[in-house]
Structures are given as C-alpha cells and as structure tokens.
Amino acid sequence: MTKFSWWLGAGALLLASAAHGITVDGYVRIWGFHDVRAWIHFHAQSPSARSDSTRSDGWAGYFSIELQPGVYDVVYSFANFAPYRLPDQVLLFDTTLPPVELYQALSGPLSGDFGYDWVQIVDSISVEAGQTLTIYPGARLLFEPRAKFVVRGR
Question: What is the pTM assigned to this prediction?
Fold first, then answer.
C-alpha cells in the first residue's frame, strides 16, 4: 500500500465517520475526595473535531460524551488540583480512555508537617531559612519535569 493510498483510505474513513458522533468515556479519580465532579475538556486539534467538555459523575468518576471524530487534546481538571493532559488523542471510533487520577497541586514555600497524601509538585517548592518541613513516611510527591525542591531551612 502506497503512502498516498493509505492517506486516501484514512481520509475516506474519517469522512464516513464524521457524519456520526462517537462516544468517548472513562473514569477520573480525585485523590482524597469522594462525591466530587471533575471537568474533562476535549480541545479540537483536527478540522473534523469540535471542542467540547463534560463532567464526571460524583461518586464513581465516570464520564461519557458524544464527539465528532477527530484528534483532540484531552485535559482533566478540578479546582486546586494539577490538570492531567492526554495530548493528540485520535478518536475515530467509540473509545474508553485510560483511568486518570488528579492530585492536589503544590508550589512555592512550604513549612510544617506533610502527611500521607499524594500531591503533584507543579512548580518549584522550597523550605525557606528559619523554617522546618517534616515529610512523613508514606507521603508521595510527584514532581513535574522542571520542578525543583530547594531547602534553605530544615
């Protein structure tokens, strides 16, 4: 199969499926909370796609939405929690996305006690001079690639 015929076949499939919506579903969990609803945003990245949003149900975190087939950036969000991104999702048929967990976002100066939570470090954190931060066993800190942990205190 030549590259041209592959693209022609893929284009015909996309045009045929564009007339009908597809169902996209999945689950999102908000760490440490129950019975809350997260936002799931679908940002169109191809001409056939149409941006849209939905919310998960309160208890199980399940969501379902009907979309036009296409390529989307999918962003999960909840207030004061780090967003989770699934870029360039090719959604041409009914699809179940992988389950996602959102973690509380932290950045900036910290002090005091840090317990047994999961948190996502979205920007650099620090312990300033004269301050103390105690991190207990079991705490999970998930650092974004460019985030740093600077300790000037204890």
Answer: 0.70
